[in-house]
Design brief:
Blueprint (H helix, E strand, L loop, with lengths): L1 E2 L18 E10 L2 E11 L4 E5 L6 H8 L7 E6 L5 E4 L13 H5 L7 H10 L15 H13 L5 E5 L7 H18 L2 E5 L5 E3 L4 E5 L3 E5 L2 E2 L4 H7 L1 H4 L2 E3 L6 E3 L5 E3 L36
Parallel strand pairs: 1-3, 4-8, 4-10, 6-7, 7-8
Antiparallel strand pairs: 2-3, 2-5, 9-13, 10-11, 12-13, 14-15
């Protein structure tokens, strides 16, 4: 399935044209004899935010590595706009606890930039005061902001963020989502982001792609204002950073949790499920995902 993402009208595009930053078609990946992705496609245009969600093992991180050119697909192709600059925040960045490493040094490990440019990027993400701090002393939220600045110092046309809010609490998650939205608005860059949550995404997301080795469904998220229980739980400002995505899958799950085509589900498995994060919100699809917040393939 190929998903064409629509551009939001209130974001200025770089160069004023509609040429996609990135386009993937028919992507298939096999690792260790196992199929990881099959027939996956998506397009990211300048100035839009595309969020990839899906259960553990769905292939989300693998798809990111394919579009970055880190993994060669066995089928399909990836087209990147000529001269495309990409800023990447990986899902994990192991830091040796005894290695002397300052934030400034981390920022320039793979690219040379003057201190002024490094400081400017750190200030953009709200951590300019940490430029000389040891990386090992950073909190989870501070490290994510530093890694975001490290991606921005490249002046990217496209930000690729693999679970950028991992390791932070709800308030920190909302603040990071607001930061990403502000970066998109200021810079006009595209954003391709992986989210670990199956149902709640950044409110500024233009399109959501639900992946389970293939594209199960795709669409626009609903605003949290349509779910007043979020606002009651977390407050209007924090809740405004989030949106709910309602799945419209082309498959169901049997009583063992295995994926089966619609119509072949166990006859006794006919009730609609209500999913919960830390709240009650009802989804219209009639199956359940097993999700523990773990990491993806």
């Amino acid at each position: 399935m190929h998903v064409r993402m629509s551009k939001t009208g209130d974001v200025a595009q770089r160069g004023g044209d509609a040429e996609p930053l990135l386009e993937a078609r028919g992507i298939g990946v096999t690792l260790g004899g196992h199929g990881i992705l099959e027939g996956v496609g998506l397009t990211v245009a300048p100035g839009e935010i595309v969020t990839i969600i899906g259960p553990n093992g769905a292939g989300k991180t693998t798809l990111v590595k394919v579009v970055l050119g880190l993994i060669e697909p066995v089928t399909g192709l990836v087209r990147r706009r000529p001269g495309l600059s990409i800023g990447y925040v990986p899902q994990r960045m192991p830091i040796d606890p005894v290695l002397p490493l300052s934030v400034a040094r981390l920022m320039t490990l793979t690219i040379r930039r003057p201190r002024a440019a490094v400081l400017k990027a750190l200030e953009e993400t709200g951590v300019g005061g940490l430029i000389d701090a040891p990386v090992q002393a950073l909190s989870g939220g501070e490290l994510q902001r530093v890694l975001m600045a490290r991606a921005l110092v490249r002046d990217p046309d496209l930000l690729v963020l693999d679970e950028p809010v991992q390791g932070v609490d709800f308030a920190g998650e909302a603040a990071l989502y607001e930061l990403i939205s502000d970066i998109r608005r200021r810079r006009g860059c595209g954003v391709l982001m992986v989210s670990h949550d199956l149902h709640v995404v950044m409110a500024a997301t233009d399109q959501v792609v639900c992946l389970n080795r293939h594209v199960c469904c795709a669409g626009e998220p609903e605003t949290v204002s349509r779910h007043p229980e979020y606002e009651r739980l977390f407050g209007r400002k924090a809740a405004g950073a989030f949106a709910v995505y309602t799945h419209h899958h082309d498959h169901a799950h049997d009583v063992s949790g295995d994926v089966v085509p619609i119509g072949e589900r166990d006859p006794g498995h006919t009730h609609d499920h209500t999913h919960s994060r830390t709240h009650d919100h009802r989804h219209t699809h009639d199956h359940d995902h097993t999700h523990d917040g773990g990491r993806d393939a």
